[in-house]
Amino acid sequence: MITTVLPTYNRAPLTFHKGEGSWLIEQDGRRFLDLGAGIGVNALGHAHPALVSALKHQAENLWHTSNLYNIPQQQALADKLVENTFADTVFFTNSGTEACELAVKMCRRHFHDAGAPERTDIITFEGSFHGRSSAGISAAGSEKMTKGFGPLLPGFKHLPWNDMAALEAAIDDETAAIMLEPVQGEGGIRPLPDENLKQIRALCDTHGLLLILDEVQCGMGRTGRLFAHEWAGITPDIMMVAKGIGGGFPLGAVLATESAASAMTAGTHGSTYGGNPLACAVGSAVMDIVADPGFLDDVRKRAGLLRQKLEGLVASHPEVFDSLRGSGLMLGLKCRALNMDVVNAGYGAGVITVPAADNVIRLLPPLNISEDEITEALIRLEKAADSVAKAGT
Ligand SMILES: *Cc1c(COP(=O)(O)O)cnc(C)c1O
Hints:
Layout: E1 16-20, E2 23-26, E3 31-34, H1 37-40, H2 49-61, H3 72-84, E4 89-93, H4 96-113, E5 121-125, H5 134-140, H6 143-146, E6 156-159, H7 164-170, E7 175-180, E8 183-184, E9 190-191, H8 194-207, E10 210-214, E11 238-241, E12 252-256, H9 258-261, H10 277-290, H11 293-316, E13 321-327, E14 330-335, H12 339-349, E15 351-352, E16 354-356, E17 360-363, H13 371-392
Helix pairs in contact: 2-10, 3-10, 11-13, 12-13
This protein binds pyridoxal-5'-phosphate.
């Protein structure tokens, strides 16, 4: 008999009762160091006082009005995002995949209104993840996500990841955009080298294409810059954001330049919940903390410490780990053992990690994890690795 909750997830046998900063706690008091942060969502850990206070304050005043009226919390957050990024304008969604939907629509409408309606194709890459909507799975294109869900949305061209020659060869008169994650998340924490992102920006300029970046996972301070593309010194035309921006409250956004967005006039897009007062009040509190240059400095310091310790872990457990990769506090341990065995051993040792494709385990701790917690995390990861190594011999 089917379960009352549609059984689309393989859930770990863990039930958390409370979250405190970088810790998740079960009913019986067992504490887990959370290096998953709800898959990069709890950017400031659990129950951060500034977020709790923003949410409570808004909850006591006004939850929802719809986008038929002005929403000052939305305006305030849009202003902060515009002030701190390449963007001229922002649309709020409730999730990453809704941001993908709008990015695709905005891109196509842009070329439609620019007198080039034949330009509909968006180049995407193997290993990418853009969410589970029809546009999202069509964009990513993997068998795992698309099987049985056809007919898919047409107009996506899937290329191998980080193959610049294949990319150049694939651009033709119908190409509208190149869409990618600067650091692939679900695909196994695979960063695109800065040089190649620069080259892709240049290709877009040469051919009149839009560059659409999916920073749903790698954005909002995750790599030690507010957005990952800043490392390459380039800017996109359209960017998808979600996960960390709400700190745990469902919130996403599409950021765009005026030129890319100018065809999106009144009536062309909408969302009942998107940008509602509760979500935007929390998002604003997240932005106030994460966009601060001093905070981002600290993220880079913490990332340096974690990386250094993880390199030691890989070196001391060559039978379990192959290598370390990633950027900032978005790190992946490519495993030699089965990645799920390492994740499960982590549960036993009281540390939460997240599996990804390519036999990787992902570490996406809260951006404000302390140095002591990083030290404790490594003790627990060592313990997990020891138990995997022992089971394997
Ligand atoms: C999680 C994720 C999405 C989808 O976000 P949802 O909020 O689950 O719809 C899209 N793109 C990337 C890169 C993601 O990591």
